[in-house]
Here is the input.
Amino acid sequence: MLHSVLVHSPATLSNLGCGFDVFGLALAAPYDTIRLTRRTAPGISIRHLDAYHLPTDPVRNVAGVALRALLQAVPEEMGFDLEITKGIKPGSGVGSSAASAVGAVVAANALLGNRFTKMQLVEFAMEGEAAASGARHADNIAPAVFGGFTVVRALEPALDIIALPAPPLWVAVVHPQIELKTSDSRQVLPVTVPLGLAVRQWANVAGLTAGFLTADYDLIGRSLADYIVEPARLPLIPGLAEARTRALAAGAIGGGISGSGPSIFMLNRSEETAQAVGAALSSVFAELDIEFNVYVGPVGTKGAYVVSEE
Ligand code: HSE
Here is the structure.
């Protein structure tokens, strides 16, 4: 019987332009490192081995909430010691809370002999995400569990997730250090959508899916455009229009708001281009005098996985 496992759980992009609340993409890095160890006493103890001062109370910590949801589906009484090392800065717009929640349930599943399906792990991790953001959504959780490119086709009446491979891509993400809560970023969204815009949007959703499946980078670039959500969020994200202009000039395929922002992502054909695009994104926020971080990394083919076990 396994006693302890170490898991890496990746950063993810959600929405991918046109696919609000539906599309997700796993990155290979950065990732959170999760160590989960069985203990004899029931319950969950949490330690953070990083400097972000996140809550360690299991009912307030996203990974703790996810683990509690999983434990409710386990008949035997058991307890865990959870150690989290955040490689993904909280609030960075690349699925930080989803990574911790997913890492914890993937680790627990390994300790329990892999009795749960990936779809069940998404359900458990979503409880953690809901605690963090106040809304049930799986667009960061799904790629963190399955890897590659994911489509959350439905949450109700049953979770329906399609996991697809992604072609080789490099991602550049800039995270301007401005506070933008997901709840505020959702508040500005339109309640109704004109049919003409909806048609253009779902044409892009189909185009982007086809582009990923056929590795047609030009089609991906054309199809990323978001006619519904981005225009509403544009005033909340200074520098977005200029960031896109400079990124495209530096060779990016295309991009948009990462999740609910304020981060901006750009997809690229190569590492070299992604680095140049990262520099182009940086130049915008340096000129605006807004502090920022930049991540450059390849798309991840796998979701959270066990690195070592004992
Ligand atoms: N799909 C969600 C949104 C992602 O755009 O609000 C939140 O991280």
User: Anything to note?
Assistant: Residues 38 and 303 are 23 Å apart (CA to CA). DSSP finds ten helices and eleven strands in the chain.
